[in-house]
Amino acid sequence: MSTLLQDLRYAWRMLRKSPSFTAIAVITLALGIGANTAIFSVVDAVMLRPLPYPQPDRLMFVTEMALQRDGTLIEGPTSYPDFFDWRTGNHVFEAMASYHSDDFTLIGSGDPIHVTGETVSSEFFSVLRVPPMLGRGFWAEEEKPGTRVVVLSHDLWQSAFAGDRNVVGRKITLNRQSYEVVGVMPAGFTFLFDDQLPKLWRTFSPDAEAGTQGESSTTAERGSHSLRVVARLKSGVTAGQAREEMNRIAQALAKQYPDTNTRHAATAVVPELEHLVGNHRLALWVLLLFVGCVLLIACVNVANLLLVRASKRSREIAVRAALGAARIRVVRQLLTESLLLGLGSALISIPLASWAIRLFANLNAQALPRMRYAIVDGRVLAFTAVIAIATSLVFGLVPAWRASHPNLVQFLKDGGRGNVGGSHQRLRGLLVIAETAIGLVLLVTAGLLLRSFHRLMQVDPGFNAGNVLTFTFDLPDAKYNENQVVQFYDRLLPQLKNLPGVTSASAAYPLPLSNGRLFLTFQIEGHRVSKANAPFAGLRIASPGYFHTLGIPIISGRDFSEGDQTKSPLVVIVNQAFAQRFFPDRDALGKRITTGIVNADKDRPREIVGIVGNVKHQSLTSEFAPEYYLPYPQVAGAGMSICLKTAGRPQSQTSAIQKTLAGMDPDVPIYDVRTMEDYVSSALGQPRFQAVLLQAFALLALVLTAVGLYGVVAYSAVQRTQEIGIRMTLGATADSVLRMILKEGIKLAAIGGAIGVAGSLIITRWIRSLLFDVRPLDALTFVSVIAILGLVSLMASYIPARRATKVDPMAALRQE
Amino acid sequence: MSNGQPLINLENVTKVFYTDEVETHALSGIHLDIKKGEYVSIAGPSGCGKSTLLSIIGLLDSPTDGTYVLNSKAVQGLDFSERARIRNQEIGFIFQSFNLIGDLNVYENVELPLTYRSMSSAERKRRVQEALEKVGMAHRMRHYPSQLSGGQQQRVAVARALAGSPSILLADEPTGNLDSRNGEAVMDLLQQLHREGATICMVTHDGRFAKHADRTVHLFDGKVVEETEGARQAAEVV
Q: Which residues of B touch A409 (CB under 8 A)?
């Protein structure tokens, strides 16, 4: 123990004695360890940490797989009747719950506030196995029509009810309806499966109620797919067994209800965590691998520094060996220094990592699910400690091992002077080749993703997002019937249009790139098919002027007009993709389709009065899909988002909008006040996150590689000072010396680069799915990266080569 | 001073260095015995194999052929770690260039070989103090090598060699880096240690210092060409 302390003391003294070496090594490693710590904290928060519920591995996401026209199956929400059949018909889950998000206006605790919530089935909390901290969860009979009960989140309980413990049993007003608070969830309880954290939960009782015009309830609509389902596996049942049983049930339902379920004869049962993060797994592993490689380059650089240092310390090490230090003792001494360097770097890396995590969040916290939970906690610190120790071994072991076996005879002969072995220089050369190869792979990967991101940014979304402000509000059913909703928009839009600085005002639902999904089947007049085979397309609801506000071109026909009212002839506008898909051989304009949209005239055909440009609604990477637009007065009680085109900065209109809304109804708060550019920016969130990070890390890798190459060439030049002196004495010109030293650096970089190119050809295939409109073997990227690396290598070699030409031959010859 | 018991026995020791395709016979058929308590010097012109012989005796190198018995144990074929262990316990080195570690103070330098043994810190402290007192450097134990003169540094190096109570002290040109006054002082110190019973084997090319030894082994071209006893040496020098 005392010798270990001695080693530590000595190591500390040695590091303090060489502040430049220590600082360079610590900073190099701290950057590498910090990057790894930060990315690991994200990976841990997103992928590794279990869901915050008891036995989270038993929680399964159950979903329908909808058969597409091209024969593929895509995951989609289910309907209430299907859910009920799943719930009662399965023997593999101990409980199953449905949920879908909803927006609420809470009145009665100060100003009306907008809150997001979930409409759930009664088993919701028991599936998650988290009981409320106050009150109770839901009872089965509370799913029935007429019941209004709600469970509050801890946040809402604190913010809107001041943590009143008597809130249970109290009546609160949500969307103008009275709800009884039956429970409050504990602090920290979150339902992570959606983008926004819900503030309250209610049962689906309102969905079980029939419409005011006699329409059937949503819970009775087998064709209305809006539910997500979470279920808890029974003990001893595997996900595979559950999948089999659920598929059996789905197939039986498809036979029983061919009109609605033919395309939904399959299900998927996947662990909830997998469902939540599965799509991001590859991107995160790539990031982690990437920063791991950056750390490896940092290790190689520090190992190179240590080799130089070991050369300089060969006398000391030889003395120790001559005095009887066993090899392992010398290695231990040197590794103690490496360990101190590693741990010191880890300490510095922690604030660096915290800063980086904050930076990631600013880049786009929504880019990855659960990323908001990324913090430097005990787990992350443990990772940092492990990586620091592992790093110390990686960069310290080879130099220590090499140094621990000095040539004692040579040492005795010359007293340890200048006996730097050529093998050290060879090893350092190999290390530089390795880091150049790794650096090139990283640069190519980053280059491809960057090109991909630029391609993505150049994608024309089909609309002009510039200077468009959007916002949303909810008109409560209890106060506004379907006609009153239409009248509200009729009155609101002209007022907004008249606001100073507003050039256009319109409304639509869902907005492009807003994650709103609405698909509906329809029938083409003269080509009616069975319900099961009815074509479907994306449905949009819009007001007159919407296409103008968003700059969506009207290709032929007309826009919606003030004349397209509830009782006037039904009309529809379709996009080009719709026209091409369903009317490939004829002009779609003037043709008629029947939509299943819920209103009194749902079976009356609608005439296609306009064809508009395609818009990227789901994502920037997806293909243009067939879509059709309906005028809002002809869709019963449709709620929409408002779009304002402004002459100046769109955000400056917010207070005027609030004032206008308050003038019409003070109990209707607005929410989701965002610019369209923000929606586009969010759609680029993950690629941007990835591209920016990889670019930064690739730059770091490039700098480290250049520093490593510079170090090797510079040290070699110093070692060859005497040789250079002799050569110059014998008539070598400065140019020939320059070429000689340059050649050494370029040779190392070229070998490393060639290995890197070969590695990139293999590795870039793995990231194919992360690329958009760029091939993994994109020649421009490869050529650019090779050129950049070549230039940087040339610079890194030129500086020491140039210095070598300044050697004074006489001084060099006098040097021993 | 010799008590007649053999400490070192080299039989037909050969050392060949191979560089590319050239064989260099550094030592050929060396026979050498050193008894406990004996003071032997090895002399000869530059390149005759003195240092090679000393490195084999000091277990810094292995012979190509022949046998080497140290303290009744054959040591010619030991591996690196075993040689390190024996070096640490049986041999004390004194180098021409002192080879003190600049980052360790005098005390730590002398303590260094003891840290490679399982020895309590109290025992180490006792031995270090004793060794430093023996060479008259106890008052400088917190100094660093750079704060000492060459003669003082060599005395510290001698203390370091002594601290482990080795069977033999191997000195390689111990006065080579010292002026004549300091050189004499170091030789006096070795002489005193010899009188106290230490076995010493010293490489030197300086006839003045070789006379201090009981016996001088003369090497030429890697072979022992002559051995001279102490009295005869003195006469020759006079």
A: 51-52, 55, 60-61
